[in-house]
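Hi everyone, sorry if this is the wrong subforum. Our group has a chain we'd like a structural model of before ordering constructs, and none of us has done structure prediction before. Sequence below.
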Amino acid sequence: MTATAPSALIEAHHLNLQRAHKTVLSDISLSISAGQIITLIGPNGCGKSTLIKVMLGLQEPDSGQVIRRNRLRIGYMPQRLSLDQRMPLTVTGFLRLARHASHADIQRWLQRLGIETLAPLSVHDLSGGEWQRVLLVRALLMKPQLLVLDEPVQGVDVQGQMELYQLIPQLRDELGCGVLMVSHDLHLVMAATDEVICLNGHVCCSGHPDNVSVDPAYLQLFGGRAQPAIAPYTHHHDHSHCQHDHHPQQEDDA
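Answer:
Right subforum, don't worry. Here is the predicted structure as tokens:
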């Protein structure tokens, strides 16, 4: 891959993908820079997780190009990660499987996320919220320049969701990284994102979360539901808002 523009960590240009004669991605372009949090939203099956996999090089597009900064360090938290129930594995043992994970780093991130008491427990005995935080620690152990979070609050109760979404901008600031996040609900992530890209195979609209939430394309996609945000949103950056394209899960998005 050739190098990105100096400010970009990763760029996608005109990505297209079909699967079983269904258009999964149609002319998708986006760019993520350090310090930026971009959230992909859309209903199940709209292509969110597939786009993530293409961006990470886990799946090839039919056409288009992904350009990554040279030696880009990526911390990836997948939507799901199933482990063999017959495999005895503690949380610490699981985290030691991450590349270059030192004991000190594991302890530091467990403490930072408030789950140090989970270290000796079996991974098979964790609640959904505890497992999600362990997966986040695994991603952070990569010392990421780009943190990729696919539905990070899956299986987490509402209080836990709020805490995780409040944590993400803090981690962005601490690491100086960019964040690419997937969610199915704009109003859960409004306070934790700089820019939203609404997908339904193609880009329906994009821009500031407040603007996207009232955009006709977003309202049509989600049935015009008006929902209050979980937390107040404050934002101080300039953006070009709601740029429209005119191109026409299972849980992890076909």
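For your construct planning: Residues 150 and 182 are 5 Å apart (CA to CA). The helical segments are 48-55, 91-96, 103-112, 128-140, 158-175, 186-189, 209-212, 216-221.
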